[in-house]
Amino acid sequence: xxHETTLGLYRYWNTVRSGRRAPRRYxxxxxxxxxxxxxxxxxxxxxxxxxxxxxxxxxxxxxxxVNLRGQTFYDLWSEPDxxxxxxxxxxxxxxxxxxxxxxxxxxxxxxxxxxxxxxxxPLTHLxxxxxxxxxCISVVGSPxxxxxxxxxxxxxxxxxxxxxxxxxxPHASLKEMPLFxxxxxxxxxxxxxxxxRREVPSLRPNEGIRHARLxxxxxxxxxVYDGGLAKSNSGDDTLR
Length: 240
Fold this sequence. Notes:
Blueprint (H helix, E strand, L loop, with lengths): L3 H14 L22 E8 L2 E7 L1 H7 L14 H17 L2 E9 L7 E11 L5 E12 L11 E10 L16 H9 L1 H4 L1 H4 L14 E5 L4 E5 L15
Antiparallel strand pairs: 1-2, 1-5, 3-4, 3-6, 4-5, 7-8
């Protein structure tokens, strides 16, 4: 990670989280993140196809040239990028990971591209479910045209899931859910799936690995680890 907003927002979120899977939405105090507010987002994940922008900072709106509040987040992206984002956001909301993305923005084919970092952090809202995301979008490479014209296309360059505790967190157990929530869960397609009956894979212990991607297919789920040259830092509040 390169931008001070990305690092600062993560550190604030991790402090408020205090070892839990995710902090609650109401625990996020705007007064504590004033330097980052213009670049922040709050997303609401209603289902796989509907992730709405509830709050968007002024700098994000100005840079992208659109008022994002109330818009569907996935509409900003191409269809292939939507697939990647849906899969990553699903893992964030189910297991409490942090999503870190880089993307580019272009004005025209022959113009220099602008480069951005995007961070998505899980928040619980009702019934201890993660259905909100605290995020930020920050410019890390800005061509001259970005000051006078909005980009016409956004393209993901990289995506990474980061586990703050070094391993995925499982769903809350059913016995912790209210009765109405257990009934709704039992009727869901996820509850009937093979994946719902499998244990969530965890990182191998004592290997200093902090970064991994959860990859799923119809019949398997597994973690892809960083290569042997990847090193983790000792502090929980430090990200690359």
